[in-house]
Amino acid sequence: MNSARIEFVIEGVALCAPGLPTWNDAIGVLRGDRDYIAAQMQRPAPALLSTNERRRAPDSVLLALAVAEQACAMSGREPRVLPNVFASAYGDLAINDYLCAELARAPLDISPTKFHNSVHNAPAGYWTIATGCMAASSAVSAGTATFGAALLETALIVARDSTPALLVVFDTATQGPLTDVVPSLSPFAMALVLAPPGASAGARIGLRMSRDSAAGLASLPSSLHSLQATSPAAGGLPLLAALALRQPATLGIDAGPPGANGLKLEISF
Protein backbone atom coordinates (compact mmCIF):
# COMPACT_ATOMS: atom_id res chain seq x y z
CA MET A 1 0.00 0.00 0.00
CA ASN A 2 1.40 3.40 -0.97
CA SER A 3 0.02 6.76 0.08
CA ALA A 4 0.11 10.19 -1.51
CA ARG A 5 3.58 11.61 -2.06
CA ILE A 6 4.77 14.55 0.06
CA GLU A 7 7.54 16.69 -1.40
CA PHE A 8 9.97 19.05 0.31
CA VAL A 9 13.57 20.26 0.15
CA ILE A 10 16.24 20.12 2.85
CA GLU A 11 17.88 23.49 3.36
CA GLY A 12 19.88 22.91 6.54
CA VAL A 13 21.60 19.87 8.09
CA ALA A 14 23.37 19.36 11.41
CA LEU A 15 24.83 16.40 13.29
CA CYS A 16 26.47 15.87 16.67
CA ALA A 17 27.77 12.50 17.89
CA PRO A 18 30.90 11.07 19.53
CA GLY A 19 33.71 11.70 17.04
CA LEU A 20 31.41 13.73 14.77
CA PRO A 21 30.81 17.08 16.49
CA THR A 22 29.50 18.88 13.38
CA TRP A 23 28.10 18.20 9.91
CA ASN A 24 31.38 19.23 8.28
CA ASP A 25 33.27 16.73 10.45
CA ALA A 26 30.84 13.99 9.45
CA ILE A 27 30.70 14.42 5.66
CA GLY A 28 33.84 12.41 4.90
CA VAL A 29 32.73 9.54 7.14
CA LEU A 30 29.20 9.53 5.70
CA ARG A 31 30.66 9.35 2.19
CA GLY A 32 32.89 6.43 3.17
CA ASP A 33 36.08 8.42 2.54
CA ARG A 34 37.32 7.52 6.02
CA ASP A 35 36.17 5.19 8.78
CA TYR A 36 34.14 6.33 11.73
CA ILE A 37 36.11 6.45 14.98
CA ALA A 38 34.21 7.17 18.18
CA ALA A 39 35.78 9.76 20.46
CA GLN A 40 34.98 11.48 23.72
CA MET A 41 32.35 14.13 23.00
CA GLN A 42 32.68 17.55 24.54
CA ARG A 43 29.57 19.04 26.13
CA PRO A 44 27.83 21.09 23.40
CA ALA A 45 27.72 24.85 23.94
CA PRO A 46 24.88 26.39 21.90
CA ALA A 47 25.47 30.11 21.46
CA LEU A 48 21.79 30.91 22.02
CA LEU A 49 22.18 30.13 25.72
CA SER A 50 24.16 32.28 28.13
CA THR A 51 27.08 30.78 30.03
CA ASN A 52 24.96 30.39 33.16
CA GLU A 53 22.11 28.77 31.22
CA ARG A 54 24.51 26.35 29.54
CA ARG A 55 25.89 25.37 32.93
CA ARG A 56 22.43 24.65 34.35
CA ALA A 57 20.90 23.01 31.27
CA PRO A 58 20.96 19.19 31.01
CA ASP A 59 22.89 17.42 28.26
CA SER A 60 19.71 16.67 26.31
CA VAL A 61 18.94 20.38 25.97
CA LEU A 62 22.50 21.32 24.99
CA LEU A 63 22.65 18.51 22.42
CA ALA A 64 19.30 19.39 20.83
CA LEU A 65 19.87 23.14 20.75
CA ALA A 66 23.38 22.79 19.32
CA VAL A 67 22.18 20.95 16.20
CA ALA A 68 19.06 23.11 15.87
CA GLU A 69 21.24 26.21 15.88
CA GLN A 70 23.61 24.77 13.25
CA ALA A 71 20.83 23.62 10.90
CA CYS A 72 19.11 27.00 11.04
CA ALA A 73 22.40 28.78 10.34
CA MET A 74 23.01 26.62 7.25
CA SER A 75 19.49 27.23 5.96
CA GLY A 76 19.63 30.98 6.51
CA ARG A 77 16.19 30.83 8.13
CA GLU A 78 15.26 32.81 11.23
CA PRO A 79 14.75 30.31 14.09
CA ARG A 80 12.01 32.43 15.65
CA VAL A 81 9.65 31.95 12.69
CA LEU A 82 10.10 28.19 12.16
CA PRO A 83 7.52 25.68 13.39
CA ASN A 84 9.54 22.97 15.10
CA VAL A 85 9.42 19.29 15.96
CA PHE A 86 11.69 18.00 18.73
CA ALA A 87 11.87 14.22 18.89
CA SER A 88 13.49 11.80 21.32
CA ALA A 89 12.81 8.15 22.02
CA TYR A 90 13.70 8.39 25.72
CA GLY A 91 14.24 12.03 26.69
CA ASP A 92 17.02 12.79 29.16
CA LEU A 93 18.08 9.39 30.49
CA ALA A 94 20.49 10.75 33.10
CA ILE A 95 17.67 12.74 34.69
CA ASN A 96 15.35 9.73 34.45
CA ASP A 97 17.95 7.67 36.33
CA TYR A 98 18.33 10.40 38.96
CA LEU A 99 14.56 10.70 39.50
CA CYS A 100 14.11 6.93 39.87
CA ALA A 101 16.98 6.74 42.37
CA GLU A 102 15.72 9.69 44.43
CA LEU A 103 12.13 8.39 44.48
CA ALA A 104 13.45 5.13 45.90
CA ARG A 105 15.84 6.79 48.37
CA ALA A 106 14.39 10.12 49.50
CA PRO A 107 11.40 11.40 47.46
CA LEU A 108 11.25 14.75 49.27
CA ASP A 109 14.83 15.56 48.23
CA ILE A 110 14.14 15.64 44.48
CA SER A 111 15.66 18.72 42.83
CA PRO A 112 12.96 21.06 41.42
CA THR A 113 15.35 22.04 38.63
CA LYS A 114 15.99 18.45 37.60
CA PHE A 115 12.28 17.70 37.75
CA HIS A 116 11.61 20.76 35.57
CA ASN A 117 14.17 19.48 33.03
CA SER A 118 12.77 15.93 33.04
CA VAL A 119 9.71 16.68 30.91
CA HIS A 120 9.90 15.38 27.35
CA ASN A 121 9.46 18.78 25.72
CA ALA A 122 12.10 20.58 27.84
CA PRO A 123 14.49 21.08 24.87
CA ALA A 124 11.64 22.51 22.78
CA GLY A 125 10.83 24.89 25.62
CA TYR A 126 14.42 26.06 25.94
CA TRP A 127 14.58 26.56 22.16
CA THR A 128 11.39 28.59 21.86
CA ILE A 129 12.35 30.81 24.80
CA ALA A 130 15.94 31.34 23.59
CA THR A 131 14.88 32.19 20.02
CA GLY A 132 11.64 34.01 20.84
CA CYS A 133 9.83 31.51 18.60
CA MET A 134 6.02 31.80 18.70
CA ALA A 135 5.41 29.20 15.95
CA ALA A 136 3.89 25.80 16.65
CA SER A 137 6.12 23.37 18.55
CA SER A 138 5.72 19.60 18.95
CA ALA A 139 7.49 16.89 20.96
CA VAL A 140 7.47 13.38 19.44
CA SER A 141 8.45 9.98 20.81
CA ALA A 142 8.05 6.68 18.94
CA GLY A 143 10.71 4.32 20.30
CA THR A 144 13.12 3.03 17.69
CA ALA A 145 10.95 4.60 14.96
CA THR A 146 11.23 8.10 16.45
CA PHE A 147 13.23 9.56 13.54
CA GLY A 148 10.77 8.34 10.90
CA ALA A 149 7.71 9.43 12.87
CA ALA A 150 9.19 12.89 13.49
CA LEU A 151 10.27 13.30 9.86
CA LEU A 152 6.72 12.52 8.76
CA GLU A 153 5.30 15.00 11.30
CA THR A 154 7.61 17.76 10.06
CA ALA A 155 6.98 17.02 6.38
CA LEU A 156 3.23 17.22 6.97
CA ILE A 157 3.63 20.66 8.60
CA VAL A 158 5.60 21.86 5.56
CA ALA A 159 3.02 20.45 3.14
CA ARG A 160 -0.04 21.66 5.07
CA ASP A 161 1.14 25.18 5.81
CA SER A 162 3.53 25.77 2.87
CA THR A 163 6.16 26.93 5.33
CA PRO A 164 9.69 25.84 6.31
CA ALA A 165 9.97 23.84 9.55
CA LEU A 166 12.72 22.61 11.84
CA LEU A 167 13.20 18.95 12.81
CA VAL A 168 15.47 18.03 15.75
CA VAL A 169 16.04 14.39 16.78
CA PHE A 170 18.18 13.55 19.79
CA ASP A 171 18.85 10.96 22.47
CA THR A 172 21.32 10.85 25.34
CA ALA A 173 23.26 7.91 26.78
CA THR A 174 21.58 5.87 29.48
CA GLN A 175 23.16 5.22 32.85
CA GLY A 176 22.53 3.24 36.02
CA PRO A 177 20.06 0.31 36.02
CA LEU A 178 18.31 1.73 32.95
CA THR A 179 21.33 0.60 30.89
CA ASP A 180 20.01 -2.97 31.10
CA VAL A 181 16.65 -2.13 29.54
CA VAL A 182 17.08 0.98 27.36
CA PRO A 183 19.00 0.62 24.04
CA SER A 184 20.60 4.06 24.00
CA LEU A 185 24.32 3.76 24.64
CA SER A 186 25.69 7.05 23.32
CA PRO A 187 24.49 10.61 22.70
CA PHE A 188 23.37 11.46 19.17
CA ALA A 189 21.53 14.41 17.65
CA MET A 190 20.67 15.64 14.18
CA ALA A 191 18.61 18.48 12.79
CA LEU A 192 17.07 19.33 9.42
CA VAL A 193 15.37 22.44 8.10
CA LEU A 194 12.66 21.37 5.65
CA ALA A 195 11.01 23.75 3.18
CA PRO A 196 8.33 23.57 0.47
CA PRO A 197 9.56 22.38 -2.96
CA GLY A 198 10.92 25.22 -5.07
CA ALA A 199 11.87 27.26 -2.00
CA SER A 200 15.58 26.65 -2.53
CA ALA A 201 18.12 24.52 -4.36
CA GLY A 202 18.55 22.00 -1.51
CA ALA A 203 18.16 18.24 -1.75
CA ARG A 204 14.66 17.36 -3.01
CA ILE A 205 12.79 14.66 -1.12
CA GLY A 206 9.68 12.76 -2.10
CA LEU A 207 8.15 10.94 0.88
CA ARG A 208 5.34 8.45 1.00
CA MET A 209 4.03 5.89 3.46
CA SER A 210 4.70 2.35 2.35
CA ARG A 211 4.22 -1.14 3.78
CA ASP A 212 7.33 -2.13 1.80
CA SER A 213 9.65 0.30 3.57
CA ALA A 214 12.04 -0.84 6.28
CA ALA A 215 15.08 0.77 7.83
CA GLY A 216 18.37 -0.87 6.93
CA LEU A 217 22.10 -0.56 7.04
CA ALA A 218 22.88 -1.19 3.38
CA SER A 219 22.97 2.50 2.52
CA LEU A 220 25.50 3.28 5.28
CA PRO A 221 29.29 2.88 5.21
CA SER A 222 30.05 -0.21 7.31
CA SER A 223 32.00 1.75 9.90
CA LEU A 224 28.80 3.59 10.86
CA HIS A 225 26.71 0.48 11.54
CA SER A 226 27.84 0.41 15.16
CA LEU A 227 26.95 4.09 15.67
CA GLN A 228 23.47 3.55 14.27
CA ALA A 229 22.94 0.71 16.74
CA THR A 230 23.84 2.83 19.78
CA SER A 231 21.04 5.41 19.62
CA PRO A 232 17.45 5.53 18.36
CA ALA A 233 18.11 9.07 17.08
CA ALA A 234 20.74 7.63 14.73
CA GLY A 235 17.94 6.16 12.62
CA GLY A 236 18.44 9.22 10.41
CA LEU A 237 22.01 8.24 9.43
CA PRO A 238 21.03 6.68 6.05
CA LEU A 239 19.40 9.96 5.02
CA LEU A 240 22.45 11.93 6.18
CA ALA A 241 24.72 9.61 4.18
CA ALA A 242 22.64 10.20 1.05
CA LEU A 243 22.82 13.96 1.61
CA ALA A 244 26.60 13.80 2.05
CA LEU A 245 27.04 11.79 -1.16
CA ARG A 246 24.71 14.10 -3.12
CA GLN A 247 23.55 11.20 -5.23
CA PRO A 248 19.95 10.20 -6.03
CA ALA A 249 18.76 7.44 -3.71
CA THR A 250 15.68 5.64 -2.43
CA LEU A 251 15.63 4.80 1.28
CA GLY A 252 13.29 2.96 3.61
CA ILE A 253 12.86 4.44 7.08
CA ASP A 254 10.84 2.88 9.91
CA ALA A 255 8.02 5.13 11.11
CA GLY A 256 6.17 2.82 13.50
CA PRO A 257 6.32 -0.52 15.32
CA PRO A 258 7.22 -3.72 13.43
CA GLY A 259 4.59 -4.44 10.80
CA ALA A 260 3.40 -0.84 10.69
CA ASN A 261 3.86 1.58 7.81
CA GLY A 262 7.32 2.83 7.07
CA LEU A 263 8.51 5.74 4.94
CA LYS A 264 9.94 5.55 1.45
CA LEU A 265 12.23 8.49 0.75
CA GLU A 266 13.11 9.32 -2.84
CA ILE A 267 16.06 11.73 -2.87
CA SER A 268 17.27 13.82 -5.82
CA PHE A 269 19.53 16.82 -6.30
Summarize the structure.
This protein has 269 residues and is an alpha+beta fold. The chain has a single domain (6-268), classed as Peroxisomal Thiolase, Chain A, domain 1 (3-Layer(aba) Sandwich), CATH 3.40.47.10. Helices cover 34% and strands 20% of the residues.
Task: Walk me through this protein's architecture.
The protein has 269 residues and is α+β, with helices and mostly antiparallel strands. The chain has a single domain (6-268), classed as Thiolase/Chalcone synthase (Peroxisomal Thiolase, Chain A, domain 1). The chain is built from nine helices and eight strands. The chain has an eight-stranded mixed beta sheet, sandwiched between helices. Strand 7 and strand 8 (262-268) form a beta hairpin. It starts with 5 loop residues before the first strand and ends with a strand. 48% of the residues are buried. The mean pLDDT is 90.
Rg measurement, Å: 18 Å
Q: So what's the CATH class? A: Alpha Beta
Helix residue percentage = 25-40%
SSE topology string: EHHHEHHHEHEEEHHEE
The total count of helices amounts to 9
Structural class by sheet pairing and helices:
alpha+beta
Mean pLDDT reading: 90
Domains, number: 1
CATH topology: Peroxisomal Thiolase, Chain A, domain 1
Oligomer designation: single chain
CATH superfamily: Thiolase/Chalcone synthase
How much strand?
A: 15-25%
Can you list the strand order of the major beta sheet?
3-2-4-5-1-6-8-7
Question: What is the first-to-last residue Cα distance?
Answer: 27 Å
Number of strands: 8
